[in-house]
């Protein structure tokens, strides 16, 4: 009964009709990133691998900063942050570029959703290189590693929420595109990707603590590298922020979606 | 008798001219300085109401800026009316500005599936219809070439082919029959007539060519400055439109 009435819901019916569009757009996001390069999809693996090698040389050899198993430490942070930054950026630009919505009715949320999903699939594929490095560097995995799933899911939802919000706002305020670029780089330096948070003076650490991306990366590192269970308080904090952005993103999009075609 | 498939009930659309276009901080401060932030309303459509029965072929006539395209966009569901409501029954396929909206770095083949999905078709359905589309658009040789390398004629043909194989119940045409060369024009006109006759498709048709409207439509609507001044059988309305244009 409940299931049936849910299936006949206007929103669900609409989604069922356009799920093929979602599929096609997700495919497009993944495909177009690597089109027309010789190595094609291999760049998903090659790019983080080369990056890790370079930064490992720079940070642990030249600068002499020592972090236990630096390649894994770096990769956990870098992959997660890359997904957040590329996913939110792609979602932000998705609706702006979709000139087709001026001609045919399409549910608008499909565009940012497909961008984030597409980038998430790329991200999941790039985790293979992380798994490979874990084996090579001999990290001992425990059952606690399974808990890494939670930050992975939260990271997706947070990016989706922020992406939906940006996709709507950028249509009315083009300036947001540039501001977001600057903000992302600020966020990156406050996420402790290349360095340990221990080198940050104590009075500034709060900035990192409040950064949900840093918290997510920290949760991933704790469960993958150290086989620990992260602080449940971290989960609540990050989940709270995620829900806030999801609700905000969805509300903004549905409130203003009828006006989009006048501004695209 | 036959059922109503389109109900346009007292539809008005308003644009706010000052808020149109790209919004940037520079523009904002400029208009703030010039005290132009007040509303400037523009109503491209005012209180338009009419019904269309199944199988009717309605020509929409009017000078440039009379609100024809806005009316079609409202019926196609692309734009929400500021006041009033539009109800449609069945699959509405708009053929508006066909050559645009393709992804340029995507190949012809990929674009066919993407456009199909945009219209709400499953991948399986598109695979079944794939050859039909490719043959009609005459692009088989260029299937694996990115659409950025297509000529504008090729894009328009591809757009037409995908949209018309959709078995629409309501077809919305905005000047599309002026697409491509004479040969393709003839072919597309035949295809349209075929669709209309075999499936009893309802058609909304915007054109400046009274000859095409005479040939295709049995009903007509005349729009003048956003208001509907005449509705009914096509004959007298075409005469009236000719009068206006000859003035």
From TrEMBL, chain A:
Transmembrane segments: 38-64, 70-92, 120-143, 149-172, 179-197, 235-254
Keyword flag Cell membrane: yes
UniProt main location, coarse: membrane
Superkingdom, natural source: Archaea
ABC transmembrane type-2 domain: residues covered: 39-256
InterPro entries (alphabetical): ABC2_TM, ABC2_TM_bact-type, ABC_2_transport
Keyword match Nucleotide-binding: no
GO BP term, example: lipopolysaccharide transport
Keyword field: Cell inner membrane, Cell membrane, Membrane, Transmembrane, Transmembrane helix, Transport
Membrane topology: Multi-pass membrane protein
Entry's Gene Ontology cellular component terms: ATP-binding cassette (ABC) transporter complex
Subcellular location: Cell inner membrane
Molecular-function annotations in GO: ABC-type transporter activity
Coiled-coil stretches: none
Annotated PANTHER family: INNER MEMBRANE TRANSPORT PERMEASE, TRANSPORT PERMEASE PROTEIN
Protein name per its UniProtKB record: ABC transmembrane type-2 domain-containing protein
Organism: Candidatus Methanobinarius endosymbioticus
From TrEMBL, chain B:
Family, similarity comment: Belongs to the ABC transporter superfamily.
GO CC terms in record: membrane
Any one GO molecular-function label of the UniProt entry: ABC-type transporter activity
Domain ABC transporter, first and last residues per copy: 23-244
UniProt entry tagged with the keyword Nuclease: no
Highest taxon in the source lineage: Archaea
Protein name in UniProt: Putative ABC transporter ATP-binding protein
Taxonomic source organism: Candidatus Methanobinarius endosymbioticus
Keywords: ATP-binding, Nucleotide-binding, Transport
